[in-house]
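Lab notebook, page 48
Experiment: co-folding of the full assembly
Goal: obtain a model of how the components sit together before planning crosslinking
Operator: M.T.
Materials (sequences as entered):
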Amino acid sequence: MSSTDWPLWEVFVRSRRGLSHTHAGSLHAPDAEMALRNARDLYTRRAEGVSVWVVPSTAITASSPDEKDPFFASAADKPYRHPTFYTIPDGVKHL
Amino acid sequence: MATTVEAGGVREAAFDAAVAADERIEPRDWMPDAYRATLVRQIAQHAHSEIIGIQPEANWITRAPSLRRKAILMAKVQDEAGHGLYLYSAAETLGVGRDELLDKLHTGRQKYSSIFNYPTLTWADVGAIGWLVDGAAITNQVPLCRCSYGPYARAMVRICKEESFHQRQGYELLLALSQGTEAQHAMAQDAVDRWWWPSLMMFGPPDDESSHSAQSMAWKIKRHSNDELRQRFVDICVPQAEALGLTLPDPDLVWNEERGHHDFGPIDWDEFREVLRGNGPCNDERIGRRRRAHEDGAWVREAAAAYAAKHGEAKA
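Observation: model returned without errors.
Model output:
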């Protein structure tokens, strides 16, 4: 069995307590336990993490770039969702 | 047919616009075939260089002069292996397989940096590699952090952060030798004499002979020309060599007030081409060792796979 038969795993690292896990990269490993150990050696050699997640890449469902425009378009034309959309008189505080 | 061509044109325009706007191209984006092929070639060569580059340094792990130096060298070698893995992962996002890449390395169909075909004859070579070879690599790699292909740029950010330690430990090692006994100083000077010119060759052929440069710059894979980066490296190294108390082996090396740069002597490109062609001092040794390591590790990979299969976790 060659390494390409090993599944690809995506690695997420929490850099310190209080922060979310962030995508660090990917690696091949035969199972979840080996993926975790490899992820520790590959992505946290300098104490970059306090917690690691590994997720089989095949388990991720991604939006396709081809549908980028329609998929995200509805958020782009709603500036009223941002506080800066509203005009408030000068001098009004705590708003 | 007409609509296909038209759709292709629209996608190509979107790609060109993204590159022009300094946006990053990501794996699932449409990209020209030649862009993909260029990246696969470059990232694979880069990954291969990282793992082949382990060999000349690992040669000295068992003979490091102190426990401190040994621990440092092992950490550096582990980093090089890690850098190889970051880069193989980046290459794989372009649709090539890990085994395919390793196979191409083992059969000579993809290259690695020629610098690793030179031998490490003395302990001082470990210092010269850190200072000069890693220094040249950093000069090349820092602009790659802004490469137009996202996964490659992200791998380079990680690598550049880690390379800084590699360069500094080499410099410190050379400084210790240079300030040591007469014999140690001579050993340091000899290592610098042997590694200086091959390090300058790491930037690749002169601009007017570099076959891939113009297109790579247009695609923003590459940000500076070979000669520009080489000049930058020479200018950086001259004062560093002075501080080391060592000389660079080039009688033509002189500050040019008018250019605001150092002039330096001609590079022996015949030597470069010979090493590239496979006739360097260690070409066969490096590839032979790599192949053996891969074959000798087969049982470990098989055992891990068998264990995973038995426990029903592998979901290939």
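Interpretation: Chain A has two helices and three strands.
Next step: discuss with group before ordering constructs.
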